[in-house]
Amino acid sequence: MSNTKKEQFEFQSEVKQLLNILVYSLYKNKEVFLRELISNAVDALNKVRFKLLTDKDLPDTDLDLKIEIGFNNTRKTIVIEDTGIGMTKQEIIDNIGTIARSGTMEFLKTLSETDQKERSNLIGQFGVGFYSSFMVAREIHIITKSYQKDSPAWIWKSTGEKDYSIEETVKKTRGTRIELYLKKEEEKGLLDTFALRTIIDNHSKFVPFPISLEGEKLVSTEAIWAQPKSSLKADDYHAFFKFIEHTKEEPETFLHLSSDAPVQFNAVLFVPKTSLEALGFFKEEPGIDLYSRKVLIQKGSRDILPEYLRFLKGVIDSEEIPLNISRETIQNNIKIEKIRKHILKQLFSHLKKLKTGQRENYLRIWNNFQRNLKEGIISDFNNRDKITPLLLFHSSNEKKDELIDLRTYVDRMAADQKEIYYVTGPDGASLAHNPALEAFREKKLEVLYLIDPLDEFVIEHLREFDGKIFKIAEAADIRLDRDKDKTEDKSTVKRVEDFIKYLKTVYENRVADVKRSNRLVDSPCLLVHAPGAPSIQMEKMMKLSNKDYPFAKRVFEINPDNSLIREMMRIHDERPDSEELKGLSLQLLENMLLRDGILEDIDHVVPRLQDIMLWAAKKL
Ligand code: ADP
Asked: Is residue 189 part of a domain?
């Protein structure tokens, strides 16, 4: 035994928090601890296999790569041992004593804000790794020896409260042995071959290394992506997905691709049913593991597929990928580029088929991952054409909540319609009340409702679809054909002009212009885009990043056929200096600014409205 002393360390406060949540949460599915430990062992074995392939000079080269699970009825322990990469003392401190992943931190924050019942769901979805073992163990020992030459072995001990100890120990060969000293109430359920085997079967069917329980080898399943499609059923893929994602949930859809020429590869890709990112959690980590002849080369590869497809889970295996590949090679190698192209083509066409053939599935995918696809439109010029048909929009012509694609819109356009019209706003209901749409409604022109702030960037990048330019409705030249059948006498025209002049002086420089509208049917007035100005949604986004961003001035249009405007014109004829008329005029503009959420100084609105109410009340 060595002479190094036992050292005591405190857990990072986040770890303490996580342990506390785990131990006291009502999470029922405690058995997942075994899956987490096996999965750590698999990672460790994958890592050492890689090292052994690239460095012939390591100790223990003849050691089998395997996982052994056993239990001891007298000591009341479960033991999981692997011949993986092991850990140095510093690695133990860094990996076990602290939480490195930023995702875990955010997850914790959210967890501490959710209620108990919701919490247990989230724990299951997230996979809390090694620490989950403290749900069943009152004390854990980790005995580990790094694969590196002359590395000493260490024993880590903790009761999962606030601290742990590390001390040198004896272990002959590389790898990690985890000993769980079970809590009294867990002993009965877990110290049993059948129970443990059931847990392993349920959660760890696809372990790519030999695994034995109490000395008996368990049957392991071949890498699913290397098997012929004809021999696999949907259930097999689902089980594989559950295994790699540590989840109970089935995937929304999957795709199995194989090719021998011009490049060899096998891939199994999954679209999950939920998106933590869409739920407002952290940005997802890429979920495609890269293999070469079944050897794991890169877990969660950032380079094989474009970043916006980070929601995809699964495996790409190709013998074209050299073992010691660098990130640059993955990005620039011609053969890998071919694989990427092939996979993306198949993926987008698969999604397109779902869109028409399995609408419900597609709508869920859209709900969860529309942001990713839109990111693709913006960032992936080469695939823009393939992603465009996948886009869905709300529109003025659809029943509430129905979504259409651009093809449907264009197919429904009138023969003489040349542009694709859209409006932007926070939700469909408020857009439906947008006065700018009155003329469109009357002329039966369909307008797309862009309610996701990203949509506008998408439209900007697309510029056109099927040769039709996108045009924001407020700036479109859509007029009512009233003037033809209505002759207005000169004096009325003059009165409107005078009133407009009056409004311009009242509004000073708050608007770009005041005009008579020919696109309003019922509403008194409307704020429209000055040519070239960004939309309000876009401006609001700018404002978020820069508080001093000034909103562009808009054109204020009035409708002289509206009774409120008529009354105001009457007052203007009779008493052009009326204070009340000034108040009404200001309120008219500010109502519109309020509606669009761009009125910056609102303190005087309520007193003025109360004045106006008083005038009205006196007349009653
Ligand atoms: P995760 O596996 O998600 O990273 P864990 O808390 O389960 O989170 O594990 C933390 C880290 O501890 C792992 O990333 C790994 O570096 C190390 N580790 C855990 N188990 C083992 C093991 N059996 N062999 C080697 N390293 C391990």
From this structure: yes
What percent of the chain is modeled with pLDDT above 90?
A: 58
- Joined together, the tokens standing for residue 515 give 């005009």
- Residue 141 forms part of a structural domain: yes
96 and 207 inside one domain: yes
Q: Work out the percent of the chain whose per-residue pLDDT is above 70.
A: 93
Judge whether 367 lies within some domain: no
Q: Which of 14, 37, 40, 42 has most ligand 1 atoms within 8 Å of its beta carbon, as the pocket-test mutant?
A: 40
* Chain center to CA of 46: 29
Number of domains in the chain: 4
Q: Closest Cα to atom 14, ligand 1: which residue? A: 95
> Are residues 42 and 180 both part of a single domain?
yes
Residue entry with tokens 């033809």? 484
Return the ligand 1 atom nearest residue 101 CA.
4
How many A from CA of 231 to the centre of ligand 1? 34
Give the pLDDT score at 484: 47
* pLDDT, averaged across the chain: 89
pLDDT of 68-122, one tens digit each? 999 999 999 999 999 999 999 999 999 988 876 666 677 777 777 777 666 666 6
Would the pLDDT of 275 be above 60? Answer: yes
CA separation for the pair 191, 199 (Å, rounded):
12
The pLDDT, as a whole number, for residue 217 is 92
Residue 323 sits at the vertex; the CA angle it makes with 319 and 328, to the nearest 5 degrees, is: 100
CATH of the domain at 561: 1.20.120.790
Name the nearest CA neighbour of 137 among 13, 23, 20.
23
Domain that holds residue 318: 224-362
- What spacing in Å lies between the alpha carbon of 95 and ligand 1's midpoint? 6
pTM equals 0.73
Pocket of ligand 1 (CB under 6 A): 36, 40-41, 44, 82, 84-87, 95-96, 129-131, 176
Residues 535, 604, single domain; the answer is: yes
Both 213 and 232 in one domain: the answer is no
Q: In the listed set 408, 438, 472, which residue is the last one of a domain according to the structure?
A: 472
Atom of ligand 1 nearest to the CA of 36: 7
Choose one of 95, 140, 146, 147 to mutate for the ligand 1 pocket test, by most ligand atoms within 8 angstroms of C-beta. Answer: 95
Residue 383 domain-assigned (yes or no): no
Identify the burial level of 321 via C-beta atoms within 10 angstroms of its C-beta, where 0-12 means exposed, 13-18 middle and 19 or more buried.
buried
